[in-house]
Amino acid sequence: MKLTKFILPAALVALPSLGLAQEAEAAAPGFDEIGPYIMTTLLFCMAGFLVFFMAAGFAMLEGGLVRSKNVTMQMTKNIALFSIAAIMYWFMGFNLMYPGDFNGYVGTFFSPTVLDPVGVAAADAALDYASVGSDFFFQLVFVAATASIVSGALAERIKLWPFLIFTIVLTGVLYPISGSWKWGGGWLDGIGFSDFAGSTIVHSVGGWAALAGAIVLGPRIGKYGKDGKVTPMPGSNLALATLGTFILWLGWFGFNGGSQLAMGTVGDVSDVSRIFANTNMAAAAGSIAALIMTQIMYKKPDLTMVLNGALAGLVSITAEPLAPSLFGSLLIGGVGGILVVFAVPMLDKLKIDDVVGAIPVHLVCGIWGTIAVVFSGSATLTAQLTGIVAYGVFTFVASLVVWFILKGVMGIRVSEEDEIMGLDMAELGMEAYPEFSRG
Q1: What residue ranges define each of the domains in the chain, with the CATH number in brackets?
Q2: Structure pTM?
Q3: Residue 228 to residue 346: CA distance in whole angstroms
């Protein structure tokens, strides 16, 4: 009786709190609600890590394909350009590129990205997409890849600081403005232009900027003779260049797979896996196509062409890595590998000196890959050509203007003496391989 006297009041007191606990438990979202948000955020983070690692791939590829007296300069440029891209995309690039709300052309200038902690209500409202932080990071690593393309093409004769200033303009202004035309919901998106992961938006933009710089900068001393003869200038370390290519190949799974932009359903996950398979097939086809073509044309396989063939296949499939079949991906990548073999000597005939073959790989194959989207039926040729021309004219002309301004104000090319000595000692005062004689 005495026990009941105490238990009953205690139970009455506990009932309201028990009810509140049950209501809270009922209100908590289950995995079916939060799962898509979690999985897509995870996709952005993991894919972003892979694309970030491509910075190492670009550094190793360029370090292997330049002469030993210029390796330290390439390493310096690559770590600096990524850091600049990260800061500039935070400072203005991200909000300039998204949502493309100024007449469908550009977003907001000088608007630093803010990643404040969000409340429960705000988080719940975003459950059908992903965290802003993961989206920002994933988009950031793409702009850094664009700048890396320029670095390799202009190697061995450009001054460090003018290059870094150009990187500020490219990553903070040029890339975000043009990127907003499609990915920011701008005018090219409105006419049906299709570029899944950036054959044009990323790769050809980098290629156009590199082409403009190579024209203004001029070729390396001794590269082209008066009789039109091309003097080979072998790189310092083909093993390093091969490692860089494999790193880029790996990073491309994040580049293309992450561009699915969703991993919250069975269909999304299945699509990501198809993208991986198609991406890999295109790279393999590009390398084999280049291998065969160099054997036919030069009677011996050329490893540098084979490496660029793999990258050419990757760039070619980037505009649409989901829709094609594996056989279609093989054809798209294989054509890219063939194009590179012909584009490299074509540039030499025009006396445009591209040290690592970035323009054939990223510009030529970026254009090809964007056109190839038509074969999958997801875009019209008119829309694709409009996008190619728009990105080409804007990026090439704007880049030319910036390069000419830099040339006039501070000069962009090292002196003849410094170029012959090597940029490592002339610009930085240190060598990558101090135990070996400079060559």
Answers
A1: 36-112+131-428 (1.10.3430.10)
A2: 0.90
A3: 12
- 400's enclosing H/E stretch is helix 381-409
For residues 186 and 179, what is the distance between their CA atoms, to the nearest angstrom? 9
pLDDT score for 33: 75
- 294: tokens are 């160099």
Give the residue among 60, 421, 427, 409 at the shortest CA–CA distance from 235: 60
Phi first, then psi: what are they for 388, rounded to 5°? -60, -50
Q: What angle do CA 199, 103, 94 make, to 5 degrees?
A: 50
Question: Is-contact 403 166, C-beta < 8 A?
Answer: yes
Enumerate helices (H) and strands (E) in the chain, giving the number of each.
19, 0
Reported as a single tens digit per residue, the pLDDT across 83-114 is: 999 999 999 999 889 864 444 455 667 778 87
Summarize pLDDT for 113-127 with one digit per residue, the tens: 877 665 444 545 545
Nearest 5°: the CA angle 317, 323, 327 is 70
Q: Could you read off the pLDDT of 219-233 as tens digits, one per residue? A: 999 999 988 899 999
pLDDT at residue 237 tops 90 = yes
Sign of CA dihedral 354, 356, 362, 367: positive
402, 422, 147, 93: CA torsion to nearest 10 = -60
> Angle at CA 183, nearest 5°, toward 182 and 186?
45
- Enter the tokens of residue 277: 């398979």
